[in-house]
Amino acid sequence: MAYLELNNIYKTYGEGDGSTEVLSNINLTMDEGEFVAIVGFTGSGKTTLVNLINGLLQPTSGEVLFKGKPVTDTSHERGVIFQNYSLLPWLTVGQNIYMAVKEAFPKESKADLMKRVKEYVAMVSLSPAINKRPKELSGGMRQRVAVARALAMNPEMIIMDEPLGALDALTRGNLQDEILNIWSQDKRTALLITNDVDEGIYMADRIIPLKPGPNATLGPEFKIDIERPRDKTAMNDNPVYKKTRNAIIEYLMDIGEERKTVSNVEYKLPELTPKSFVA
Amino acid sequence: MEQEMVLKNEKSMSASFKQLLLKLTPSVKKDGIIKSMKNAGITLLSILLFIGLWHMGSKALYNKEADYKVEKALQERGEEAAAAERACIESGDSSCQPNTLPSPTQVWASLKSLVADHQVIKADKAAFAEKLSATNEKLIAQGKDPIVYTGRASFIDIVLTSIKTVFAGFLLALLIAVPIGIIIGLSPSLRSAFNWFIQVFKPVSPVVWYLLVFMIVKTLYIGDSSDNAFVISFISVGLCAMWATLVNTAMGVSSVDKDYINVAKVLKLGTFQKVFKVILPSSLPLIFTGLRITLSVAWMVLIAIELLAQSQGLGLFVWEEFQNGANDSNSKIIVAMFVIGIIGFLLDRLMLTVQNMVSFNKNEMA
C-alpha cells in the first residue's frame, strides 16, 4: 500500500459558469521515506495541490489517501512549511515553536515541551535568537524557524510549499543542505513543491512536473539516480544530472510553448487619411 | 497681501502642531539637542503668534462693541450720556464693559480666579468636614447616612467629574463593543444579523442617545431620590462612542490574515486557542485604533451630554457660564475650552502609548 495516494483529483473554484478548474486528473503515489519534488510554473496550482494534501482544502472529486485513510482535515502527522513562513509576528521564535509542540504533545509537561523547543531551535542553529520576534530576523532565519516549527511536531510526512522561494541564492543553498541533513537523519517522507528545477534535482528522489493551470495536471515523472549525499559542485559535471536536467527543462519549455496561444485573427483597420484643418 | 499672511500663519501653525505631536509621541527618536531645541523654539513662537493674533482680534471686537455702545447712548440719551458711557468703559467698571471675545489676559485672570476659587472651596470643605466629623460619626454609629458637603463644586472638581464620566463611559463602551465585536467578527451570519442594527444606531446623535438613556434610567431609578445624572451621562457617552470600537473589532477579527488561520488549522488549535492566540492578537492593532476613536468621541460628546443631563461637569459649566452672562463668563468659557482641548489631546496620547505597548507591529502605527 502506498503511503500517500492521490486518485483522480479534480479541484474547481467557484460555481456554475464562473468556475475554473484548477487541477484536473491528478494521480500521484508516494512511498514511505521518499522525497518527491513537484516542479511547476507560478500560478499552475501548486499551492492548491499542497493544501489538498495537507487537508486545508478538499478536492471537488477524487480522493487523497494518507496511509490508506482519506484526508478530511489537517493532521499533526503531516507537517507543513508554508511559502511565506507564516510565523505569528506577536510571538517570539521560541513561543511560535512552543505553540506547535504544545498542540502536538498535549500530555507533556511544560519543562519537556521547552526542552523540545530548545532542541529544535538549536537544530536550525537559531539558539541565540530564541527570544526574538520574527520581524527582527532575516528571511532565511524566519524560514528556518518555520522549518523548526514543522519538524518539532514530529510529523511523519513533511510538506514544503516553495519553502525557499523568497530567499536569495546563497541562503537558499545553505537551507537546502540543512533540510536535506535533517531529512536524512530519520528519512521522513517529504514532498517539496518548487519552481526551481535545480533545487528539485538536488534534493529529491523523483521530480514530477505540474503542467500549468487551469486544468493543471501532473506530467511524466523523472527519477533522479544520483547517490546521496549529493555534492552541489560535483553534481554539475555528473552526466546523469545533466541529462535529467535537460530533459526536465525541455519538457517544461515545451509545455510553456503550448500554453502561449497564438492569435490568428486578422484585424482589418479602416483606411483613414488625416483631415487637413489648414486649408 | 493680507491673505498671504494668513496662509503663512496657518502653515506655520500646522507645522508646529505636528512638531508638538511628534514631541509628545513616545516613540520619536531625537537626533540631537539642537534639533529638539529648534523644534521647541518654533512651537513657542507659533504659540506666541497665536496669542498675538487672538489679542488683536479680541481688541478689535472690544472696540467695535464699545463704539456701538457709545453711539447708542448718543442717539438715545444725548451727548452727556455718551461721554459718561465712554468714561465708564474706559474706567474698566464692570457694569458697562462690552461683553465679547475675551482677550488672553482676561482668560488668564479667569484661570487664576478659578484656581483661587478652588482653594477657597477646598478650605470650605475641610472646615465643613471638621465641624461635622463628630456628628457624622454619631450618625454612622446610629446607622444613618452621614451629612455630606453639598456646596458649589470648584472648577477642578468639575474637570475631575468630566474625566471620571469619560472613563466610565469609555469602560462601558469597551466592555460592550469589544466582546460583541469579536463575536460578530467570528460569525458571518451574526454579522449580517447585527449589521442593520449597527448601521441604524451608529449615526444617532448624542442628544438622542441621552434622551433614550434618560427614559430607561429614569424608570429604573424610580422612587429613588438620589442623583442619577452621572449614571445617565456616562451610559450615554459610552453608547454614543462605542460604535467605532465595535466596527473596528468586528473588522479586525473577520479580516485576520489567511496565513495565520492556515497556521492555526495546521497546528490543529482548538477554538479557544485559535481565538485567543491567533485571531485576537492579530486584530489588536485595529481594536486599539477603534478604542482611540472611541475615547476621542467620548470626550467630544461628553460636553453636550453633561449639559443635558445636568451632570456637574465641564459641559454644564460652559452652559451655565453662558446663561449666567456675568462679566467674566466669556473668559471662563474660553478657559473651559482650552482645558477640554488639552485634556482631549492628552487622552489621545495616552491611548497611543497604550496602543504602541500592546501592538506587535509598532512600525505600522501612526
TrEMBL record, chain A:
One of its GO terms (molecular function) is ATP hydrolysis activity. SUPFAM superfamilies: P-loop containing nucleoside triphosphate hydrolases. The keyword Disulfide bond does not apply. The keyword Cell cycle does not apply. Residues 4-237 form the ABC transporter domain. It comes from the Bacteria. InterPro entries: AAA+_ATPase (IPR003593), ABC_transporter-like_ATP-bd (IPR003439), ABC_transporter-like_CS (IPR017871), ABC_transporter_ATP-bind (IPR050166), P-loop_NTPase (IPR027417). Gene3D superfamilies: P-loop containing nucleotide triphosphate hydrolases. Keywords: ATP-binding, Nucleotide-binding, Transport. This is Nitrate/nitrite transport system ATP-binding protein. The lineage of its organism: Bacteria, Pseudomonadati, Bacteroidota, Flavobacteriia, Flavobacteriales.
